[in-house]
Amino acid sequence: MIRMMFINCSKKTSCPKKDKSVMKGSGNSIPPLKEHVIIYFLEKGGQESDAVDFYQYFNKRKWKSKRHKQIANWKAAAWNWILNLEIG
User: Fold this and answer.
1) What is the value of pTM for the model shown?
2) How does DSSP classify residue 6?
3) Listed residue (56, 30, 52, 29) closest to 42, CA to CA
């Protein structure tokens, strides 16, 4: 049985901060692990070779867009990559 604990955070007490190291690599964090990119592509019907191409392309660009802005969501960029492969 799982019990949820709620912490009452007031101005007088300090609240524990979320441990971001647990979330690193999953979700939308930048840069993602190469394995996570491959899994995402395979889940969406893409090829592993396309996932590796995507990862290498953005890793080389330091996860920045063509307009030199930091990518906020790698999954959105990956989805666009997959769609462009299907169209082209």
Assistant:
1) 0.68
2) -
3) 52
